[in-house]
């Protein structure tokens, strides 16, 4: 019997392009996302979900499908210079292009008959199709002492410096935190170290320009 997978909803996210998306969930707490379920799902489908603090979100790396997949990939945590098997990484270039994120659940709403699930710490591209949602159950899924292979410890963060002419004064506190936390994760390709290069990142309607000098990201404009 053939089983088909369909999306159950879609993500609204401040990240409208791949460059700048956090490489893991929860690294940018200020990145709030909303999952709007398809019309066929009523509030009955999420009854009891608001009793959980975290949820698993299974999704499709839709923007990477056309790029195909690779058996060996270069994880950013290894500087982009060493290859690992795709199943030993979280690369989007997978045979089925499926991703999995553990996100803090903020609330569940109903807007005009559509279920909305709000989370923070999102690492998802705007428009991402969601395939499934499951509650996180700590006593069976939390393994803080487990070996983590080549991924040891949280990544180092860049310091943030705003240029006076950057326009930082026009930003709300929430938007400034989102931009700072996103850039602090160092979205550059792992192999790039070009101090004079200016990078551009679209986030929540802002076109942010910055460059990296040493361990500091200098934000030039927004």
TrEMBL record:
Would I find Methyltransferase among this entry's keywords? yes
Keywords from the named record: Methyltransferase, S-adenosyl-L-methionine, Transferase
Q: Name one Pfam family in it.
A: TrmO_N
EC numbers on record: 2.1.1.-
What GO annotations for molecular function exist for this entry? methyltransferase activity
TsaA-like domain segment(s):
5-145
A biological process (GO) annotation for this entry?
A: methylation
Q: Which NCBIfam families match?
A: tRNA_TsaA
Which PANTHER family would you find in this protein's record? TRNA (ADENINE(37)-N6)-METHYLTRANSFERASE (PTHR12818:SF0)
Q: Which family does it belong to?
A: Belongs to the tRNA methyltransferase O family.
Protein name, entry field: Putative tRNA (Adenine(37)-N6)-methyltransferase
- Organism of this sequence: Kingella negevensis
Quote the gene name from the UniProt entry. Answer: tsaA
């Amino acid at each position: 019997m053939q089983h088909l997978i369909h999306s159950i909803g879609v993500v609204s996210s401040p990240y409208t392009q791949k460059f700048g998306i956090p490489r893991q969930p929860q690294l940018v707490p200020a990145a709030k996302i909303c999952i709007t379920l398809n019309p066929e799902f009523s509030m009955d489908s999420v009854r009891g979900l608001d009793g959980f603090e975290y949820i698993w979100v299974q999704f499709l790396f839709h923007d990477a499908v056309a790029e195909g997949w690779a058996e060996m990939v270069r994880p950013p945590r290894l500087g982009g210079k060493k290859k690992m098997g795709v199943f030993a990484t979280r690369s989007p270039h997978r045979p089925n292009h499926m991703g999995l994120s553990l996100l803090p659940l903020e609330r569940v709403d109903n807007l005009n008959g559509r279920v909305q699930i709000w989370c923070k710490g999102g690492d998802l591209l705007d428009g991402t199709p969601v395939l499934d949602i499951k509650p996180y159950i700590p006593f069976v899924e939390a393994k803080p002492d487990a070996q983590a292979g080549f991924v040891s410890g949280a990544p180092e963060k860049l310091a943030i410096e705003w240029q006076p002419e950057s326009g930082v004064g026009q930003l709300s506190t929430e938007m400034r935190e989102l931009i700072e936390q996103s850039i602090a994760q160092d979205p550059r390709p792992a192999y790039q170290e070009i101090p004079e290069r200016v990078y551009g990142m679209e986030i929540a309607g802002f076109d942010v320009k910055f460059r990296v000098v040493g361990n500091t990201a200098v934000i030039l404009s927004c």
